[in-house]
Structures
1.
Amino acid sequence: MDVTKVLDAKGLACPMPIVRTKKAINELEPGQILEVHATDKGAKSDLTAWAKSGGHELLKDTEENEVFKFWIKKG
Amino acid sequence: MTVNVMTAGEVAKKVINKDALFILDVRNEDAFADWKIEGDNFDYFNIPYFELLDGVEGIMEKIPSDKEVLVVCAKEGSSVMVAEMLAEEGLTVSYLKGGMKSWSEHLEPVKVGDLKDGGELYQFVRIGKGCLSYMVISNGEAAIIDATRMTDVFLNFAESKGAKITNVLDTHLHADHISGGRSIAEKTNTTYWLPPKDAEEVTFDYATLEGGNVVTIGNTAIDIHALYSPGHTIGSTSFVVDEKFLLSGDILFIDSIGRPDLAGKAEDWVGDLRESLYTRYRELSGELVVLPAHFMIIDELNEDGSVAEKLGTLFVKNHGLNIDDEAEFRRLVTENLPPQPNAYQEIRETNMGKITPEEEKQREMEIGPNRCAVR
């Protein structure tokens, strides 16, 4: 996957992972991909819902060693 | 204008007093639909916090100016952010300290009755999740029944009453919340009683609680008589306390009955459930005050916040006790059951001692309503 930017939001509590993700995606062009790393347990449901409501596409997400990773394509 | 803090305890008082409150819930829509703070005179507006990152102007007209406003989220962080944004727009609002997690954990002790020779019976209402625990106090001794994970509340309460905890009991192996029974028994070096049929897989020592057992609290014998009443689980046991109160566990609730599917197959236990409710309970005095281990809806709370009703009244009013046709009863409790409680298998394994999740993980596992009943 051709990732344009990686955002490290590990250790941040809600709402910061989404606040940072929104800011990062604003700096991308439509079609570019943002990779987000987070440890907040609420991040998965929140990022999924946020991406949907913002017209972005959550391409993939993983969980490994308590780190959640998301790949979001800007809409 | 300003942002205030409201604690779960303050919200609980508003629920019990039927006060008005406007709740702006900024969690995801599915989380809100699944579980929220219930109150007779509460109004709600749900919009996820991430829809408000650019400002709250769009929702100002939804926020009433003549009601107290509480902003709620899962853990607190997002509600603080939204509350501050509303304050900048000129409103005075509060946020819920600790979010829905602290709401899930709040326990409200309510006295439900006097026992002979100066004894007392308290109900601990876990108002956010609908769990009910009990403490029997007599002559400087205390027994705790169906304790929740928040063990300090029980230990501190007993101490404030000058009572030494002598017995800890669970009516059954719980599937909706993590029991505090074993931990309290360990901390106070006392006996932890469990029905053996529910405890076949537990990894720790316990005393076997069986029908006919009598546990005496205090010198003046406030007896707890165990009554085997399977159906929700195969081991489910009820207690008659001081010949006045029937602690019904998850077999009988105020406006519903226990579901038989959380620890096995509904079809296997539906007969036990019917036998417990329609035969064994029928043999008891209708004057007994039923004290269940859960409530489902806020309407089940009495004026003082307690959850209690006479058995005789429930025989008339509780739909689940009034299904004459056995086949229809079987259908009710085996078909169209509500979703299971969150993480119920992991919760059962925790209560058996098979796994020991970290505290934060335990909190996550317990999120949501108890869902132990069928109506």
Note: The interface with chain A takes residues 28-31, 48-51, 53, 73-75, 77-78, 81, 364 of chain B (CB under 8 Å).
2.
Amino acid sequence: MLRSKHASSPRRWVDDLLGVGALVGMVGALWLIFVYTPLELVQGAVQKVFYIHLASIWNAYASFLLVFVASILYLRRPSAATDRFARAWAEIGVVFTTITLISGAIWGKPIWGTYWSWDARLTTTLLLWLIYVVYLMLPSFMDDPERGRRYAAVVGVIGFVDVPIVHMSVRWWRTLHPDPIVANLEGPDLPASMWYTVLYCIVVFTVLAVYLVRQRMQIDELRATLARLRSTAV
Amino acid sequence: MDTLQNLDYLFAAYAILWVIIFGYFFYLTRQIGDVRREVDALQRERAETTVARNDETTS
């Protein structure tokens, strides 16, 4: 785990706990996925991609929700801490959306016969990924960093509109992607062992996301310290 | 469909998951290390300058 002599010790303790928890949790997830859950009869072994695919997109949705809330707060009262928080979660959201897109493509090849199809679910998810990549790149395109952060916050608010569209796309349009089997009104349509494993993976990926976000925010805090040191004359 | 078919796709999906997560983790680790080294160097430089100035003032 990362050692920080700059960070206070309770913070380091929390970071270490989250990091070890995420690592042990990931190993536990592999055991549940490959040993505990049964093989799906129709799709076979490749169906086990489902657990990381679903946990990843859940984390991406949650990350972008936090970006949305932090962006509103930033637009109401701009602060460096809110901007750091939003940017860190946006980056994690992009990482998890990348995992979702790649794992979905790999799962799709043997089941649909193609890695990619321009259907509603896949296209809106790719759009989601692009929106938050633009969000992350926007401040570096602007001469005035403050204005860049404000524009990024606007993207963080408007971009979130795509999250419910991604989720509902399989109901609103005809797609290759199956209907939601966990987040639907009738409750999860899964055997208990699969359902517990899905829940476990979501919790573990969330712990991992929180750990990575704290590390990401630490970089921005250190950069701010560096800028302060450089700007103050001796 | 044979239930153990497509194991290579399963392996590829999990391998890519671990590569992305560990790749991102090592990227963050490196960034933290680089910026921290710069902060430490600057703080050391400032401290040395302050000590040198104090010595000049007292002498």
Note: Chain A has one domain: 49-222.
3.
Amino acid sequence: MINITQVVKVIDEKCIGCKQCDQVCPTEAIKTVDRLARVDKDLCTGCNKCIEACMDHGAIKREFLDAPRRVVTDSGTVDRSQLEKICAAALLDPEEAICLCTATTAGEVAAAILKGGRTPEALSVMTGVRGVCAIWCTGPVIRLLEAASIKVERSSRDWRVYPENAGMAIGIWNVPPEVADKYPEYRIRENQERLKHGRIEVPMFANIERTPS
Amino acid sequence: MTAFAPTVMPPPIPRSAMGYRYPPSRAAELPGMVSVTVRDLFSDIPAPLMVLGDDTDKIRAATVAALNGVDLARIGPNDSVNILCSEHGFAMMGGDAYAETVRAVKDEVERRTGNRKLRLAFSSATNTLEGQEIIAQYKLDEHFEGRIVQFGPYDKGVEIQTEIGVLYGIGAAYKAQHIIYVHYDDPRETHFHRLNGRALKAFTMSYARIETRGIFHNNFPTSSANIVPRALYESPFVQEKFVCAVMLRSSPSGIMGVDAARDLIALDKRMTKELLRYFGKMIHLFDSIDDCIAVMDGHRWLHYQHAGGLTSCNLFFGPVDHLDLEIDSKSPGNPAVKAVVVNYAWKSAFTLKNIPFVAAHPKIASSLERQNLHYKVLSADTLEQAMEKAYALTRTRKVIIFDGSYGAINCSPELADELVRKAPAVSKEVDEVLMPKWLSQRRLT
């Protein structure tokens, strides 16, 4: 869930059509067509990444909304068992926030997946996740998509998201034994064993839930 | 109550587009506030090499001396070299020491190798506006004659094969034949790195893509997470480029010096021992505070502002002993922090659920509320009014000011009294119980 209080607007005469803004928008709200950036204000979360990307040209500015726009997917409107199944496969508690900035929960993102969200961008539009900094929540979003058997694919020229290994592929649950033994100072085997029997608590971020048997 | 010294003047706040409304006055100027020096609390913390206001010549000399022990022969005069530096280092004691370390590394490497094309690779924490401001403030663009590349966490990535799988660095950081890692030891966020590989963490943050940063925080418990930067550091891709690390060293009392090494793991072990020794007592003293109001009045992100050389996040996420690797480091927020008064900070969506915020101006309040659904923000017109609201709300007069100070803690006399009273017992417990345990857990005995 996110309360959107500002969006962005393009100053046409300053836009050079370089598409730098397209490459950072978490919701695909800004797209360059015919060498001019265009904003769909209904999709914009006001994260300001495009403003930053355009700093050299100053073609994008903030525009405050008269009234905040709330974006939320109601997790009570989907099959609860399906929602829990996705979260469990992603090793996430449905009630825990996976996005520090918006406090969007794993359950809300799972609900959005069950309602048809198939990409990180679509889930951002539906729930607000990744709608502010997008730094640490992108991984859990991909974990949830993978848990729902949805593969995120990107061309090598698209660096909005690097989906390979961003989800479940690398984690405490699957560090190779030889690596665990090579670096005993990181207590990997010990934590892998703990995870078999219960959740591991993580500060600020969502806890890692027990590996499903 | 004991008579305490007047407040010390903290580092100045440069104007920044990242910040809330520029403060008309500093918290250290609040009537009745006092200071307690770090060495009055813990006399065994050594005197620093540099304190705020000192000439940075000492830092330059320490950097050159540290580099004397490092072989730079692999850098040819026409090779491409990136000097990696990170925004957070400029948060330490006003930033002058880190800026001078960066400049001195450039000059010394240039002198010894004949390479006139050294480039500064500047990592911003969240967005490149930070870099623009800092580069101008410390005149780094002049020093590097414009050879600066800036990047943030969303920039184009580079695939790095590691022992745990493919991770993604920031392409621009690694786009050189050689890298020199100029870093700092500020033990902010002990709840994440646990001082168990702290020197390596930037490989998975400052110089990594968002996905790799997420793996560190979301996919590993904190006592294991440093395998991620370690895997990046040990990768053939990084090792082929890695010339050396140059590390700015600090303690609660100030800047201690500069260390450098080809072997970052060996440097990390040296650094960790000293960080535990220098900062362990201050961290534990913060954990012992019964109740307080935290006043944020520094020139950086709210949770990375210093008091007595220690960042506020060490207080906010206490009173858990994050240095004890046997426990999970989860803290819902320190119940001793009864309120947070914001006079100045860089804007960030930092979450402190259940702790009321009091803004020293309505514009700060509206900005805090816009950023985060969970802040409980009270608004005042001035810092003095904000303090009165915080006193009424919390019924405590114990105030700690996070304003960037090293060497001393600006605070209310009531808190100074508590700190001075508790420090001897804290010191004894760290020396006799905690330090042996921390060292043993890290195989540093």
Note: The longest helix of chain B spans residues 413-441.
